[in-house]
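Protocol check, entry for the methods section draft. Step 1: assemble the input record (protein sequence plus ligand SMILES). Step 2: submit for complex structure prediction. Step 3: store the structure tokens unaltered in the notebook. Ligand used here: magnesium ion. Step 1 record:
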Amino acid sequence: MNRLLRDPAFLVLPLALFLLVFYLLPVVQMLLRSTGADWSFRPFVDAFSSEVTLKVFWLTARIAVIVTVLTLALAYPLAYFIATTGERTAMVLLALVLVPFWTSILIRSYAWMVLLGQNGVVNGFLRWTGVIDAPVRMLNTTFAVYVGMVHVLLPFMVLPILSSLKAIDGRLVAAAENLGAGPGAVFRHVIVPLSMPGVLAGSVLVFVLSLGFYITPALVGGPSDMTVSMLIAGEVDLYRWDVASAIATALLIVTLVTLALFGRVVSLERIFGGAR
Amino acid sequence: MNRRNIRVSGPLTQAVLGAVALLVAAFLILPVLIIVPVSFTADSFLSFPPPGFSTQWYARVFSRADWLNSAWLSIWIAVVVTVVSTVLGTLGALGLVRGRFIGQRLLLAFIMSPLIVPGVIVAIAIYFFYARLKFVGSPLAIAVAHTTLAVPFVVVNVSAALHGFDRRLEMAAANLGAGRFATFFHVTLPIIRPGIAAGALFAFISSFDELIVAMFIAGPTQVTLPLRMWESMKSSLDPSIAAVSVLAIAISVALFLSSALLQRRARRRSGAASGDPQ
Amino acid sequence: MGAGDIGTTRSRAGSPVRFAGVSKSFGSFVAVHPLVLDVKEGEFMSFLGPSGSGKTTTLMMLAGFEEPTDGRIYIGHQDITAVPPARRNVGMVFQSYALFPHMTVEQNIAFPLRMRGLSKAEQMREVGRVLEIVGLERFGRRFPGQLSGGQQQRVALARAIVFQPPVLLMDEPLSALDKYLRSHLQSEIRRIHRDLGITVVYVTHDQDEAMTMSDRICVMRDGRIAQVDAPEALYSRPQDEFVAGFLGESNMLDAVVAFSAERTLQLEIGGDRIVLPVARQPAGGQVRLSVRPEHVAFHPDPAGGATVADVTYVGDHRRYDLRLADGGMLIVKAQSTGAEPVPPGARVTVDWPAAQIRAFSEGTALQ
Ligand SMILES: Nc1ncnc2c1ncn2[C@@H]1O[C@H](COP(=O)(O)OP(=O)(O)OP(=O)(O)O)[C@@H](O)[C@H]1O
Ligand SMILES: [Mg+2]
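Step 3, stored output:
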């Protein structure tokens, strides 16, 4: 007994029990619900015999891939600049990344409604400069979904890349230069490979989070921009709980498989672990 | 030290890179900032540029009982969530970092999973579960659900602090006559406190901003602030949402700044800790 | 520094320490083999040995941070093998000090007193007393992060002695400091030891440090005690080849037994013959000799069997590398005052100091 108490492992018990009851149990019940009353997997059949479900999965995957690529393209230069610029500039830029990170997704999505609406800021600006004379429809389009999601997810890409860039030993660059590598070669052969862990971590994270997106597409997307999460919520509203569970189970499996395949690289501590 | 810069580009490339970085940063921050002037519009609907400035929408928000009730409800829930998840999460992190047991990695992944699993899945699972228990609609139900989502933030921050903690300090305390509890309260706790505080801040924000779970399990009379915002956003572009958003952003930024300060303090503390005299 | 009265006001401040067959295994690896060692009260005992020889493990068992696999440990007459660290009442200075970063110097030093329930006033009095001993009276309100390495070291020392433990443990306490500070603190630790009369168990890598500070040195090797002795005895009468080679510089030479009788061993090295007063060995057999470079002399001799291969000037002495007739090398340290150096290439005859040569057979010294 004394031995047992000396090992601090038991301290995790209250948390484990709490999550067991209020998190794992509900999720398991939902998984069971999706199998149907008699393990017939009827809800799956119902859900996936509908063309809408398949199409929504396809759309969601496509959005996730495109958002991941766009986010990476924007995040890398920003992260690299933060890693290579002076301390003061770096701090300001990092704050500019973190403030949105701390602002709720809902508010940031709302901001894009304000920006992209018919009488919104962007239309107002374009009309004022004379580029257009009639307002362009931007809100409630797929374009708005991409813009909004990239905006929301960008910090999740910047932070891991930045942290892997910062971990690179500057002497390696010096060594490569000393061995005759030009700036391009150093970048290609030293910086890029060594920052790969961050790129991978950010990409997996952004991809997985995109798969489950709900708020942003629901607010700024058009009628055809439906994600799996929106579909699930819709089915719940229609009291088709079994079908909702089946779709949710499928989404969960996709998420977990992605993580199982690539998840090793994701260090949540690096992203959310403030006090290090 | 390896702090030599990893910059390889010449001044010109660096300038181009800086311009790109600035654009991306502007893309990140401007949409958040733009809400501020919008919230002060004198107009009765959203327009840009605002025809004039007034504080009418703030006055409106503060005079409306429904907004105020929602704000209080959200704050109340977030405080409960913060307290519970900070206690559970700190103990949990201690057990996970300090203990050795079978299935440790799996348990850690499980505890962290709410950060990754799509919100809707967690929300409907909890909704179905609570519906059976007739627990739906109570603020406590929301707080319990939010705790699940907030606890990983505490665990991750406290774990980080514990990983940076020099165990010899605890040995020193024991050697000097401190029992296990005295060691914890006089040495371990004060040193990891910034990590705990950072985790608590994250936990507060995550509950205060949480929408999806609340959407499913909040009752018609218990509308959290994000939920009320969400509902009015869907029906109109009423500038009072902008005013509420600005207030919420102000809270977030204040908390962000305190977390930055805490992190700096945590770093100083571990830097000043025993060891390498310069 | 006003600390002179401490030793007189406190009689019998130190306690003896006894390791009775104490061993420690990590899995199948034996870090410390059954160890039998008595440290006398008030003694300054150093553990000296190469890396991984089990010094820290032994100290940790004494402090209570490692549980012995077998054996008992006594402090005074009390068996403390099962006593938790917090109640052992041994002071300890950690290698990297382990000062609490969130407490001031005063709070750090008061910590053990606080844990023992002393009143605030008593705490402050005792803190003041030890701050004076370590010469840090003006630094009480600083945080450890605001002190230099040497000052942090003194705080750690003050904290370890403030509760007047009968035994003080130190694990390489000076290894992080520069050479000057190290020798300064060495003499300070010695003074405190003398003044307090406390038993000190001191771990070090540094043989000079062990030699200058200790009453006795315990040389360890691969988890075993190689020899325990006073510094001089250890230096002049090493029990085995390892100790002879480990402590100070030593010439290790192979010699052939030419003739042997009761307490007479005639040996042949490099064409010379020497006689040692040690036990009989089979004639024609091999023994190994160790001789300190400063104990050997030589004189120029055109008919000598050895040649000077190299001369190095090292300030107070010259260091000669001699090549013996059989090709073996011998290092000799000779006073550099007055005498002209013997040039390389010169023929010389070695004057073997029979009294200072140790002979070993299969690693252990011949008596
Ligand atoms: N917790 C442990 N688990 C396994 N082996 C250990 C452990 N602690 C020490 N050892 C092993 O025990 C042996 C003795 O270690 P110890 O730290 O006592 O050596 P040391 O004499 O203090 O060396 P150094 O001079 O390098 O500090 C080493 O081989 C070490 O690897
Ligand atoms: Mg050691």
